Structure to design on (295 residues):
């Protein structure tokens, strides 16, 4: 779409004919007609224009908007169908306004209204914490470009579904996250990372795999040596206040979990109590009684 991003002439003047017209992307001489827009992404600043937005930033923004428009995605979800993917279909000449086609304004709007509601009322995030990472991407892009990014319904005068600025992500995380030190066990299922080491742990306290940062190369090596085995990790976690789901975790120490038989564990419990267990005839009854007293 070279023509769409050509900023020659007066950037503030409308297209020929006196009216501001969108320049379609991907509707060249092959006879294909672009689908109608499902939403519009605007970069809002006093002097921003398409030629001032680096392509890597634009790609990151569109990818983040795709994630937000798709709603919650679990590990069991199927890959997006072609008709569910957003596509760039137009750029407004003289402004940084990008029209995206997708499954339809109604379907896309449902999830983006959730985003707008959570930005206004962070306490209502509930199970929709999937929005945090793409909002972080948009906030960082807004910081680099010194602008705000709004997601709107298509067409002139389209309603604003959500607006993300440089401070939006930090505002959300301050409102919905709580941090602290913790330790837990899990099965190592992924280890690696081109620029930053991460690992994937399968844990008992949530359905989704927990992706953890691993800043220490020694810990990353230990995790790699224990791939598909159980380990105990300790470090700093960030929890969603409303659900206590672990949103992020930084590994600060890791050790292999020593596996043993049930009889070994019972023997260890007996040894921990010294010879006192020998005087208890009915261990199960004794433990049940202690549990009732503790309630």
């Amino acid at each position: 779409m070279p023509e769409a991003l050509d900023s020659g002439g007066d950037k503030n003047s409308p297209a020929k004919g006196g009216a501001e017209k969108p320049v379609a992307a991907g509707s060249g001489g092959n006879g294909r007609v672009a689908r109608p827009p499902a939403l519009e992404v605007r970069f809002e600043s006093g002097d921003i224009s398409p030629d001032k937005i680096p392509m890597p930033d634009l790609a990151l923004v569109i990818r983040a908007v795709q994630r937000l428009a798709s709603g919650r995605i679990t590990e069991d979800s199927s890959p997006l169908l072609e008709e569910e993917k957003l596509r760039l279909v137009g750029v407004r000449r003289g402004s940084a306004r990008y029209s995206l086609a997708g499954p339809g304004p109604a379907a896309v709007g449902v999830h983006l209204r959730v985003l707008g509601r959570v930005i206004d009322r962070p306490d209502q995030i509930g199970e929709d914490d999937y929005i945090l990472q793409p909002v972080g991407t948009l906030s960082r892009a807004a910081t680099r470009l010194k602008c705000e990014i709004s997601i709107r319904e298509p067409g002139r005068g389209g309603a604003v579904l959500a607006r993300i600025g440089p401070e939006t992500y930090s505002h959300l995380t301050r409102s919905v996250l709580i941090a602290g030190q913790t330790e837990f066990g899990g099965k190592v299922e992924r280890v690696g990372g081109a620029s930053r080491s991460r690992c994937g742990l399968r844990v008992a306290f949530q359905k989704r795999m927990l992706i953890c940062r691993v800043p220490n190369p020694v810990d990353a090596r230990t995790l790699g040596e224990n791939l598909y085995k159980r380990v105990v990790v300790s470090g700093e976690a960030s929890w969603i206040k409303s659900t206590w789901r672990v949103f992020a975790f930084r590994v600060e120490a890791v050790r292999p979990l020593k596996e043993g038989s049930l009889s070994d564990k019972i023997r260890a419990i007996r040894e921990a109590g010294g010879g006192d267990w020998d005087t208890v005839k009915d261990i199960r009854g004794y433990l049940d009684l202690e549990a009732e007293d503790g309630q």
